[in-house]
Design goal:
Helix content is 29%, strand content 28%. The protein has 455 residues and is α+β, with helices and mostly antiparallel strands. Strands 1, 2, 3, 4, 16, 17, 18, 19 and 24 form a nine-stranded mixed sheet that branches. Strands 7-8-9-12 form a four-stranded antiparallel sheet. A four-stranded antiparallel sheet has the order 11-10-13-14, with no helix packed on it. It folds into three domains: 3-106 and 397-451, Periplasmic binding protein-like II (D-Maltodextrin-Binding Protein, domain 2, 3-Layer(aba) Sandwich); 109-152 and 256-381, D-Maltodextrin-Binding Protein, domain 2, CATH 3.40.190; 155-252, Immunoglobulin-like. It has helices spanning 3-18, 39-50, 69-77, 129-136, 146-150, 187-192, 273-285, 298-301, 317-327, 337-342, 362-369, 408-428, 439-451, and strands at residues 28-34, 60-66, 83-86, 99-113, 126-127, 155-157, 162-165, 168-175, 178-185, 198-204, 210-215, 220-226, 231-237, 240-245, 250-252, 264-268, 312-315, 331-336, 346-347, 349-351, 357-358, 373-374, 380-381, 395-403. A hairpin with a 5-residue loop joins strand 20 (349-351) and strand 21 (357-358).
């Protein structure tokens, strides 16, 4: 079963069990559509909203068509859809006059691949950002390229038990089967980080960060967890990294032997916000390789002419990309994480600007967005120089497209987006492979919702 159908079915069953049923007799259709990146999350939230009599007082039936960001923007502008979904903004002069952008959810754009013949067979491939740029530009064409092999060798991380920064000292110690943390903060540090959190994450090297604790600043913060081999711990105060600690010398990754196998790049055939965000990352991070401004269209953003020798293939939607990689040895693509996970397609760990290889996940994506800025329009600008240790560097924010014009339909969209941000995403996003919005982006998103159907 396709992921978006499966998740929608699960959500609907849960909703039936927990909510007062809404009478279909009075139901009004609220049809939206657009980004495929957003589709799995939209299906979950729509299914829950449609059975929720507390938020859905108008007895609406929300639906969402996964047609790509470009079509979503076009169909919302011409009012074919009552709301749209996109990871990219309208180009200059094409947006409806009454448009409201609402950030709804974020998530990692994972680099999915299929390489039969790896040794070890189930090893996770590691790629620097530069390698990603060169592969998708057609400059590296075989999996056994020496540049790929060079970053897929086991390395050592040295034991480090203490680190200090900004008036904060973090220490870690292994005691029996436990790892004990102590974080001491000066009075000046407590004042500086008074509105922030002290956060500790653990990362099994080559894996995704997991939150150990997130708590208010105190003179002394302590925590004890079970010991795990080959794990490092990142301690932060607010957005400031205090240090990366390890209770022993650990091995980072494994040495991988790659087969002599041509790389087949798979890109979107339709206008895509996923493409726009992926190409924007490549252009902003590696402008000497990806020389053109970003675009919803892969061929337009591509540095040159897309090869026609079979080494590049296209597919429609995130679902099409994931299906192609699943079925074709040597393929590589960029797609929202949940589409790859559902099909058993492995995702690469990508090196971030802090020189750490990080696996895509809701947590590593959320850490990346901590350094982003949100404008008065609701549009989010990512910081591609973000050096946070556990941040995954290739991500997107999905926007709901709505209208300021006062109408019953727009009031219904406002109600649905409120439910999406306040109820659905916080409870369901991480489990579905997405990142619920936090901090300044969430605050702005809620403010943007207030503009819908407000005249």
């Amino acid at each position: 079963m396709k992921l978006r159908r499966k998740l929608a079915a699960v959500a609907a069953i849960a909703a039936v069990a927990s909510m007062t049923p809404v009478s279909p007799v009075s139901a009004a259709p609220i049809g939206g559509g657009g980004a495929s990146f957003l589709a799995n999350m939209m299906d979950i939230c729509a299914a829950l909203y449609n059975r929720n009599s507390q938020y859905n007082t108008a007895s609406d039936v929300v639906t969402y068509a996964s047609v790509g960001s470009s079509s979503g923007k076009t169909n919302f502008a011409n009012r074919t859809y009552k709301f749209g979904g996109s990871e990219s903004a309208y180009s200059s002069g094409t947006a409806p006059a009454d448009l409201v952008y609402v950030p709804l959810v974020g998530g990692p754009i994972a680099i999915g691949y299929k390489v039969d013949g790896l040794s070890p067979a189930n090893a996770q491939v590691r790629l620097t950002g530069e390698l990603v740029a060169k592969i998708f530009a057609g400059q590296i064409t075989n999996w056994n390229d020496p540049a790929i092999a060079a970053v897929n060798k086991a390395t050592n991380v040295k034991k480090k038990l203490t680190s200090s920064a900004a008036g904060v000292t973090a220490t870690v110690a292994k005691v029996g089967t436990k790892v004990n943390f102590t974080v001491k903060m000066s009075s000046a540090a407590r004042a500086k980080f008074a509105k922030s959190k002290v956060t500790i994450t653990r990362t099994a090297l080559g894996g995704s960060p997991k939150i150990v604790t997130s708590t208010a600043p105190r003179a002394t913060v302590t925590r004890s967890i079970n010991y795990a081999k080959d794990t490092v711990y990142t301690v932060k105060a607010g957005k400031t990294t205090i240090g990366i600690l390890a209770v022993e010398d650990v091995v980072d990754g494994v040495t991988i032997t790659f087969p002599n196998l041509p790389i087949r790049v798979v890109h979107r055939s339709d206008g895509s916000g996923t493409t726009n965000n992926f190409a924007n990352y490549l252009n902003k991070s590696f402008p000497a390789i990806w020389t053109k401004p970003t675009s919803d269209t892969f061929a337009t953003a591509f540095p040159g002419t897309v090869p026609t020798d079979g080494s590049f293939q296209s597919a429609r939607g995130n679902e099409g990309l994931a299906n192609y990689v699943r079925d074709n040895n040597g393929a590589i693509t960029y797609a929202e994480l949940s589409f790859l996970d559902e099909r058993g397609v492995k995702s690469a760990a990508v090196m971030n600007p802090g020189k750490r290889f990080v696996q895509p996940s809701p947590v590593s994506s959320a850490i990346w967005f901590e350094a982003a800025e949100v404008a008065d329009t609701g549009l989010v600008t990512q910081n591609f120089a973000n050096t946070a240790a556990d941040a995954y560097p290739i991500n997107a924010i999905s926007y709901g497209l709505a209208s300021k014009t006062v109408s019953a339909d727009n009031t219904s969209v406002k109600s649905y987006f409120t439910f999406f941000l306040n109820q659905c995403a916080p409870k369901n996003a991480a489990g579905a492979g997405y990142t619920a919005l936090q901090g300044a982006i969430l605050t702005k998103a809620i403010a943007q919702v207030a503009k819908i159907s407000a005249g």
